[in-house]
Amino acid sequence: MIDDKSVLAIVPARGGSKGLPGKNKRPLQGKPLVAWPIGAALGAACVDKVLCTTDDAEIRGIALAHGAQAPFLRPAHLASDCASSIDAILHAVDYLAERGEHYDYVVVLEPTSPLTASADVDAALRTLHARRADADSIVGVSRVESTHPEYDVRLGADGRISPYLAADFKSLKRRQEIEALHFLEGSLYISATPALRVEGGFYHGRTLGYEVPRWKSVEIDELVDFLFVETLLANLDQLAALDAAAHHS
Asked: Do you know which InterPro entries this protein is assigned to (predicted)?
């Protein structure tokens, strides 16, 4: 609960994956990938219930073993490559509502973002709850750094490059001069339940951004991402120290 508002956390985890087959069941530091967001949700003080929606019986078993509820297997039409993720989320919300369980907020944590911590979930929820007068949802964002569009170029048919934004290369801005931009990084999604139904998603004009450091924004889609996250997890102390230094600078 947050004040008197109930919170449902949903972990969506399909059985199919083209980029990294079986990734949601793949062990990350000895724990299946799907178990990481479940652990983050269970550890969040504001979350009342953690539900895993999956079409895969083995993933369902893993979810149950790690403390989530998984009362159903997702219908096949909500688990295909072209199925909408929001439809799968609303299916889970409706399943509970039909059984008399209603929640004021819905949190979605995906296995592809295993670096999200319980503290992130609570902080984002509290931010949204405090801003309910002018916001209905909050999503993870991270600052654009090395890939800032100021430094993008076009590659011409003749092989020559030209600036994408600047008039010429002499006009390129220094890093200290560029506008701060952020990208939608997918580590967490939270919405007031009525707004989720009305908007059909988490992104709209009343959406806040919850800023996370670049290292937490890594999403696992391919093997190289998985290996990268393993390295990050092995160096969490150093990363935490960097974050602390950044907050005090």
From this structure: CMP-NeuNAc_synthase, Cytidylyl_trans, Nucleotide-diphossugar_trans
